[in-house]
Amino acid sequence: MPASPVSRRSFLSGSAASAVALTAATATSLTNPVDAAAQAVGVKRGDLPDLTIKEVKVYVINRAPGRTPAPAAAVQAGASSSLRPPSPTEQVASIVTTSGIEGNYTLDARYFHTNWSNLGWLDYAKGKLTGKSVLDLPQFTTQWAPDLRRVGQLSYASAIDNCLWDILGKAVGLPTYRIIGAYRDRVMAYGSSQHHPKLEDFVDEVKRCKAAGFKAYKIHPPGGSEPNPDNYKLDMEICTAVREAVGDDFSLLLDPVGAYDRPQAFQVGRLLDKLGYVGFEDPLPTSDIDGLAELCQKVDVPVHIGEFIDSPYHYSEYLRRGATDAVRFIVDNIGGITSGMKVGHLAECFQLPCVPHNWGNMFDHAVHFQCELAMPNAPWFEKTLPQAGVADLQGAADLPYVKDSFRVQPDGYIYASAKPGLGCEIDHSVLDKMLASIDT
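-> structure tokens emitted (440 positions)
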């Protein structure tokens, strides 16, 4: 079992003087990632491959059943709109260097925040990156500009940042986490449920998780819209039934996605205390800092907040006011791996665990896993579980055109891959057959 999260009762005062200083190596990895990459393999900066960015493009993938992809020749030439299937939604960013190293990351839709959209990413990235060097990574995604500090991290930054970290790892033949500053080679996983409609669905799934080797499970309860509206009393019944199903030696978490008001959150939180849950994620809307701070004081189950925060600069208020016991982030919302590591280190300085959001496909898992492997305060890997009725609990995050997947081992851990970069190797023999277009 992972170590218990640090309690709010050992929470630091929040003053700058009390923050633990980052190590020189970690600071270097974020401010000068190329030097860190060269040092990681014992070469000089000048010995690295040519990292000038030659091309930026987007693979547009046809996932809709019954549609025929555009002919390969047309795809390679940039298929006209008349040849493309209407509105394919899955897209993968590609940044390629003069030396032929390609970095990739998904451009799929994400949770809403005030400044998030990938519409226009290609034109922006081409204008920002073409002819520049990966050596200048920090300047492409920094939020240290007045407009960005006011409105939140520019959404385009995350895919750029993640692709460039992928390139750096491939340039030196190392996983990205070993450049950032490796702390561990494995992270304990919890199975992260879908929003199932019935209590019995959760009970069945958690039993299957335990049998498959998982040591922990997170409930996303029914709710959000008809025919399954939010119902905190049903959520409490589910939490009780799931605990009874797996016994006391299994870690459980609850994530109602900000659905409760304060009285409901306090009532559910007190039940989770009795049931021995180890995480209560987004019990209130993220904007209710006062309510979150009060909840943290009145319940023992650790409160997890952060996936709906849209800038690394917006975490400090939650930490200062004791409005969270564990810090979460989505790299897409805050500017990629670079910003994710900043948030993780900030949480560490306040003696809090960092539990990145990790719900999604192989790319989503990969970028957060690289951060978790480099953070001493990251106790969990969130493993997306499949839709109800899918027998293989392990396969939910797999992409057919990516050769890799994350699989929980019998000891409950996800182990680091030795593959360079993000560890998401594209199988072009599969991808090419799924292409609707290559946009350039």
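The longest strand covers residues 53-61.
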